[in-house]
Specification:
15 strands, single chain, about 50% helix, 30 helices, Rossmann fold, alpha/beta, globular, 5 domains
């Protein structure tokens, strides 16, 4: 039993984002360790096709790993190059560096939000060029340079100078050509469309005077904001001559005989919704639609957060990595078998590479349920699988014992309690409005009711199917009508629930099957899965007793309100269809727009008890949570690995926390920066009250 090698294998599964798979000599291991979710490397081959691709999956599903393998393959392609953009880090850094950097003429004319988006756009393009230069530099120093020379007669220095000139022109705003435009929500408002066209033409003719240009744009925005009642939904700021940028970029790369530029966009769904739409509308859509098949986008997104703008989805590839879409929707049994196979292939590949021993040296697979249990514990998520095996290592491998079914179940429970359960407790300190925090806690109420119902059904025997099951029946899965998916999406993104399958219920209606977190089921003694003795039990999940749609409907009636942003009037939920029919116009004041808000009744007192001065942004709460869990000083890189963000972001936010005496910034013996949580932060953010605990009712843990 090679303990150290086993730990290395497990650690490679736990890696976050762009953490490189390398050995002790710095050699990349991605080609040796890559395991495709589908046979014949189907996902990888699809990503490598010269099409724009959306790679859709929750955190930890392997999006970044697939990108790394695709980039490794493209590096060997003499007719294509690639660039990788970490959009979340770029967004954070460009926003942080913006203060004081915008031209004074723009600060006086444009709103701060518009200036910030200008900065994000420019940072994106500059980072893109830098990435391309890095890739070409690697090719220059490789044997492929002889092939490059067949197409490019100049020197490498000449080519780099062109790229450097390109970046300098961007920095100096020589491409700046700001135009104001609007997105109309009705097609018949031609008057305002013509006004925008006239303003755009006017701004183009005075591009030599940025101050006047910005002032005109500001006036246009002001006027259009007044037309909100006439169904104009948003004002967009278009920056740079995008078509010109694409043409120039293509000219440079075609001198190297490059036929395609693949741009990998990671962490796209981490952006705020408005900024995500802005990036699509002003950057990605033009790159995709105007490059004449030269630029191909590869974008990683979360389920339910795919916004394509004007990109034609009929011409792009959509790859889903979560189990309900990745492994087929015709038969739940086949889906489970394929997902279990992926889990087994993933573990086998890592252990054979690092340990070079038979799996039986580490796993007690005598139980027929071993691989099924391991799949249930992670539901095919590689990162969660890494944590499960790491926790198993700490309780068995280091004591020269093999991992069995009970070890996996205990590890899954620990993962839930340490990595997932805290989400609601910390969100009461989230630096958002009371309504936003209350909305989060309202989902806690919903989740509690779901689990309570699952626990109640453990003793249900009134249906034929349930009465035929010996022992405690599985009650871990439930179904809701497909229209309620959006209500559960946040719980799913945070792994309290997992969408498991799609079926039709007994009445022929489309329903979505969800699984409660496996570790929580271990904690609450909820049997997981479904009976498998008879063919009819394949339909177990759509038994009427597992229809939780009434729970969702009750949640909506009790917790959802319709609130006017002008007069503050609160309308009953029964008014929603009528208000929607009038584009959310408030029936009370006839001026404001209404929005749906979810408010927690049960936890209102708890949320209001939090002092405003203790509120923190999500990233800073995450830093404190990581330091609290590890209970030791850590480097920024180590914290970033836990939070799925860059170490630079941790460094900046750590400075803010130190200024508030919530952590200590120190140095180790080599002078490297370290971070450690303070007793004050421990007391404020991690002392719990009874209301902080999940209320699942009694009869848990037995």
């Amino acid at each position: 039993m090679k303990k150290d090698e086993f730990l290395k294998a497990v650690d490679t599964l736990k890696l976050y984002r762009r953490a490189e798979l390398v050995d002790e000599l710095g050699q990349e291991l991605i080609s040796d360790l890559y395991v495709d979710p589908l046979p014949d490397n189907h996902v990888l081959r699809t990503v490598l096709r010269p099409n724009t691709t959306f790679l859709i999956g929750r955190k930890g599903t392997g999006k970044s790993t697939i990108f790394q393998m695709a980039q490794e393959s493209l590096t060997r392609d003499k007719y294509a190059t690639w660039a990788y953009i970490d959009i979340k880090t770029l967004y954070e850094s460009s926003t942080a560096e913006l203060l004081g950097s915008a031209p004074q003429s723009y600060e006086s004319a444009l709103p701060p939000d518009a200036i910030r988006r200008l900065s994000v756009f420019k940072s994106f393009v500059i980072e893109l060029i830098r990435e391309i230069k890095t890739q070409i530099t690697q090719r220059v120093t490789s044997s492929m340079w002889n092939q490059v020379r067949e197409a490019f007669t100049g020197s490498a220095t000449d080519l780099f100078e062109k790229l450097d000139e390109f970046v300098e022109e961007l920095k100096q705003d020589r491409y700046l050509d700001i135009t104001g435009s609007i997105q109309a929500s009705k097609q018949d408002e031609e008057t305002h469309k013509e006004k925008v066209k006239f303003a755009a033409k006017t701004t183009a003719t005075i591009s030599s005077n940025p101050s006047a240009q910005a002032q005109l744009l500001a006036e246009l925005i002001s006027e259009l904001e007044k037309t909100r009642s006439q169904n104009y939904s948003q004002v967009f700021i278009k920056v740079f001559n995008v078509r010109g940028l694409i043409t120039r970029l293509r000219e440079i790369l075609t001198t190297l005989n490059m036929r395609h530029l693949y741009i990998f966009i990671d962490d796209f769904s981490e952006l705020p919704r408005a900024d995500m739409e802005q990036v699509i509308d002003t950057i990605l859509t033009p790159f995709n639609n105007w490059s004449e098949e030269f630029i191909k986008l590869k974008v990683a997104v979360y389920p339910g957060r795919l916004y394509a703008g004007q990109i034609d989805l009929s011409k792009v590839d959509e790859i889903y990595l979560d189990i309900y879409r990745a492994y087929g929707r015709n038969d739940v049994g086949n889906m489970e078998d394929r997902a279990i196979d992926f889990t087994k292939r993933l573990v086998t590949t890592r252990l054979l590479y690092f340990c070079n021993e038979d799996l039986e040296a580490y796993f007690d697979t005598s139980s027929a349920d071993f691989w099924q249990t391991l799949f249930y514990s992670c539901l095919g998520n590689p990162r969660i699988l890494g944590y499960i095996l790491f926790f198993c290592y700490e309780t068995t491998i280091i004591y020269d014992k093999r991992i069995g079914v009970k070890t996996i179940q205990d590890a899954a429970r620990r993962y839930y309690e340490e990595k997932i359960d805290h989400s609601f407790r910390l969100n009461k300190f989230l630096q958002e409005t009371f309504e936003e925090r209350s909305s989060i806690y309202s989902l806690k109420e919903l989740f509690e009711e779901i689990v309570k119902r699952a626990k109640t059904l453990r003793k249900y025997r009134d249906s034929k199917v349930m009465s035929e099951i010996s022992g405690r029946p599985p009650t871990s899965h439930f179904h809701v009508r497909s229209g309620y998916e959006s209500i559960l999406s946040t719980l799913e993104l945070n792994f309290f629930l997992t969408k498991y399958y799609e079926m039709k219920d007994r009445e022929g209606r489309d329903v979505s099957i969800y699984a409660i977190n496996y570790g929580l089921c271990q904690q609450q003694s909820i049997a997981f899965g479904r009976p498998r003795e008879t063919r009819e039990q394949r339909l177990y999940f759509i038994e009427r007793v597992f229809d939780f749609s009434p729970i969702v409907v009750s949640y909506i009636k009790v917790n959802q309100e319709i609130l006017c942003n002008n007069c503050g009037c609160r309308h009953g939920h029964e008014m929603l269809p009528a208000i929607q029919a009038f584009d959310m116009l408030c029936p009370q004041c006839k001026q404001g727009r209404c929005k749906l808000v979810n408010l927690s009744r049960k936890y209102e007192r708890l949320i209001r008890s939090v002092a405003d001065e203790t509120l923190l942004p999500d990233t800073e709460l995450g830093i404190l949570k990581t330091l609290h869990d590890e209970r030791q000083s850590m480097f920024a890189k180590e914290i970033a690995a836990q939070l799925d963000c860059s170490y630079q972001l941790v460094g900046r936010r750590g400075r803010h926390l130190a200024e508030r005496s919530l952590l200590v910034r120190g140095e180790n013996e080599t002078g490297r920066r370290t971070f450690e949580i303070t007793p004050t932060a421990q007391e404020v953010y991690f002392s719990t009250t009874p209301e902080d605990q999940m209320d699942f009712g009694g009869d848990g843990d037995n």
